[in-house]
Structure to design on (739 residues):
């Protein structure tokens, strides 16, 4: 039922101006074991892109490669024409939340947001203004709590990390498993936020998830990884959820 | 069931991911431990003869009884710092089919085999043997030994009761100091009061019932407390306090460095281990007192150079050797953000520079021991600033071990690898040898001058070196990221 607005959207098909992210002959191997192998994948600017797959399918590996946190065994990724493992010029317009290792435990949420803001060239007022838009999302449990991030619950930590990735008008936002650990209300709100980012502001959003329902709700395109390879590349439609369920169930 | 608990314990030790990886460090620590125990044992064996010699007209047993109260209090304070009740490990057991009483008995029983109990055992066992051979009544001696061991176990459990509060620590520390002072200044004969009590343990074997009773009592208190506390929201939960946020507007004058400087200051002040480093560093100012006051070292230039490098550079080496591992918990974020590595490192340089300058000012009073001392310390401070800061940052790029910030600093070897031992060579040994050699071959003034000049050269090329070091960090980033991900090393 939640899919309704999406299916409406699909009828007015989006036209993309150019490819934001291009993957060419990418592979990552540890010893003899290849964990990721993608010959070619293009993600246009402003697309909300969903990545699904079982544990060990290579989702986090792909995101880590995108952020140059690990080195590719072969091939490369370009992000807005910048090759990520040779130049750092992709950093100003790219942001991500992968896991709690992106948080600084001994800061309060406010301090953390402001720190990220300074790294991304935003002053305190800018950050505060941005945060005020997320008051609903925070549900009164984040700001003004006088607690360090390490003392927040897992779900609240996640909220902080996700919102921090929106600071500084990034053009590419990468979120690994953003829905896990969040309460239902927040999940629904987050879906709204992600959709808005991609549709109104032309942000390229990359989301991975184990929850097929959420990705089909949010993403215009879904890629299924299995054992490190792209096995499906679907433009989301009403039939998508069924298709995915059959794939993973059968 | 107990066998199974022990089995779990065994596995947790041998299967910890650290065992293989840092075997070298384990061996080193083990070696230090053995050394400590052997020394204590040696002291125990010699204790009888030492006491005999120091106080010829009193029985060693009596002399020892006078001081036992202080030994026990000191052990309690020592344990307060070092020993923690290992309740956290029982979390997974709670929801399984095991009676709570069994878990509690296991936790408490296990602590009987704690290494801390070995200290007294190793000290007093040889002492008791010597006493037996010296013709003391065997029964009395060994019952006394047993009584002392019971007292040690009492200390073990009392520590768990008081460990929860800092106030208890303050009170016990105060009592210890007051008792010692009262006795020392002859106001109250504390030793005279406690001596008969402890001596009675030797003179009348039946009095062993007293420590036994005490042990049962403290065990029961612990048992009661733990049984009630075995809930997730009670003893097993780590507490969180409401925190003050600091604005630190004054850091703004450092321009682009400001965010990193703020982060580093918060890093140091809000985490146990880093905070302890600051206090330890400050305490080491007094290190000089041990050496400057002794005739033997008065003319040893080597020693003076060592003290100069060491005292002005203690924070430099304590903090600097683990850069960037202090940030290991969130290094992935740092590396995917738009961070100029150069500024990230500059902020650390600034902190260390301030520390060297502060430590230098604190060592100025040592001029009391001669102008030479001041000259050496000045030269060493300049050398630390110019040469050692870039050197330690360079070696930092080899760090690949994660550090959990909120763990205690005492005896914490986390993040330690061969790098930390290698660092000692250029940072400490090279300048000392250089200074000593120059002093020996040419003269004191030349040694001072050359050390200062080296420091100034370092400062002149600081910017160039920092560029190279930043490149080094960029090059090794993947290895660092992979290493920092591994927990429990």
């Amino acid at each position: 039922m939640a899919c309704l607005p999406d299916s409406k959207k699909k009828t007015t098909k989006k036209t993309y101006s150019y490819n934001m992210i291009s993957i060419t002959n990418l592979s990552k191997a540890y010893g003899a074991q290849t964990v990721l192998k993608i010959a070619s994948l293009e993600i246009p600017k402003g697309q909300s892109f969903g990545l699904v797959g079982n544990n060990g399918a290579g989702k986090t590996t792909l995101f880590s490669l995108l952020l140059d946190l690990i080195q590719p065994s072969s091939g490369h990724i370009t992000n807005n024409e910048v090759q990520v493992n040779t130049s750092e010029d992709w950093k100003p317009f790219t942001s991500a939340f992968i896991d709690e290792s992106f948080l600084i435990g001994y800061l309060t949420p406010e301090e953390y947001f402001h720190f990220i803001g300074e790294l991304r060239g935003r002053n305190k007022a800018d950050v505060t203004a941005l945060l005020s838009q997320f008051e609903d999302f925070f549900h009164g449990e984040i700001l003004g709590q006088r607690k360090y991030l390490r003392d927040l619950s897992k779900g609240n930590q996640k909220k902080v990390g996700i919102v921090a990735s929106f600071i500084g008008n990034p053009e590419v936002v990468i979120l690994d498993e953003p829905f896990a650990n969040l309460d239902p209300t927040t999940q629904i709100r987050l879906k709204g936020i992600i959709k808005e980012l991609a549709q109104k502001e032309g942000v390229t959003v990359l989301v991975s998830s184990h929850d097929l329902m959420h990705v089909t709700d949010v993403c215009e395109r879904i890629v299924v990884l299995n054992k490190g390879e792209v096995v499906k590349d679907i433009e989301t439609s009403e039939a998508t959820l069924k298709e995915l369920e059959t794939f993973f169930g059968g | 069931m107990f066998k199974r608990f022990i089995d779990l314990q065994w596995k947790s030790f041998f299967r910890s991911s650290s065992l293989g990886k840092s075997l070298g460090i384990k061996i080193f620590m083990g070696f230090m431990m053995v050394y400590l125990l052997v020394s204590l044992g040696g002291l125990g064996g010699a204790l009888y003869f030492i006491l005999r010699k120091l106080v010829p007209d009193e029985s060693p047993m009596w002399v020892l009884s006078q001081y036992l109260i202080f030994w026990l209090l000191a052990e309690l304070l020592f344990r307060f710092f070092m020993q923690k009740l290992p309740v956290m490990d029982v979390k997974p057991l709670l929801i399984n089919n095991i009676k709570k009483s069994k878990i509690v008995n296991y936790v408490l029983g296990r602590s009987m085999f704690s290494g801390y109990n070995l200290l007294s055992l190793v000290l007093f066992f040889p002492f008791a043997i010597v006493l037996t051979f010296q013709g003391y009544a065997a029964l009395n001696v060994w019952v006394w030994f047993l009584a002392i061991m019971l007292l040690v176990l009492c200390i073990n459990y009392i520590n768990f009761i008081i460990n929860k509060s800092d106030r208890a620590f303050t009170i016990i520390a105060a009592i210890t100091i007051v008792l010692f002072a009262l006795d020392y200044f002859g106001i109250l004969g504390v030793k005279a009061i406690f001596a008969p009590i402890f001596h009675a343990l030797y003179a009348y074997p039946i009095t062993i019932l007293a420590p036994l009773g005490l042990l049962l009592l403290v065990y029961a208190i612990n048992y009661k407390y733990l049984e009630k506390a075995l809930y997730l929201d009670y003893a097993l939960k780590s507490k969180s306090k409401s925190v003050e946020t600091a604005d630190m507007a004054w850091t703004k004058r450092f321009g682009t460095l400001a965010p990193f400087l703020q982060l580093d200051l918060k890093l140091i002040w809000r985490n146990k281990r880093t905070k302890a480093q600051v206090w330890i560093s400050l305490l080491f100012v007094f290190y000089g007192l041990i050496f400057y006051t002794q005739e033997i070292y008065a003319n040893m230039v080597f020693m003076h150079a060592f003290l100069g490098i060491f005292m002005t550079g203690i924070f430099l080496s304590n903090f600097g050797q683990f850069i960037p591992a202090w940030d290991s918990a969130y290094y992935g974020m740092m590396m995917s953000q738009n961070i100029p590595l150069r500024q990230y490192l500059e902020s650390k340089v600034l902190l260390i520079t301030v520390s060297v300058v502060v430590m230098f000012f604190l060592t100025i009073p040592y001029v009391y021991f001669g102008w030479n001392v001041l000259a050496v310390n000045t030269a060493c401070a300049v050398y630390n600033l110019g040469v050692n800061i870039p050197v330690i940052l360079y070696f930092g790029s080899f760090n690949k071990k994660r550090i959990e910030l909120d763990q205690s600093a005492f005896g914490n070897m986390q993040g330690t690898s061969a790098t930390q031992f290698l660092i000692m060579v250029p940072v400490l040994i090279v300048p000392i040898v250089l200074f000593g050699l120059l002093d020996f071959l040419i003269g004191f003034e030349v040694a001072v001058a050359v050390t200062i000049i080296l420091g100034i050269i370092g400062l002149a090329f600081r910017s160039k070196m920092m560029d190279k070091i930043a490149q080094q960090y960029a090059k090794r980033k993947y290895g660092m990221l992979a290493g920092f991900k591994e927990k429990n090393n």
About this structure: The CA atoms of residues 46 and 199 of chain A lie 7 Å apart. Strands of chain A lie at 19-30, 33-44, 48-52, 74-79, 82-83, 94-97, 172-176, 204-209, 221-226, 229-235. The first helix of chain A runs from residue 4 to 11. Confidence is low (pLDDT under 50) at residues 1-12 of chain A.
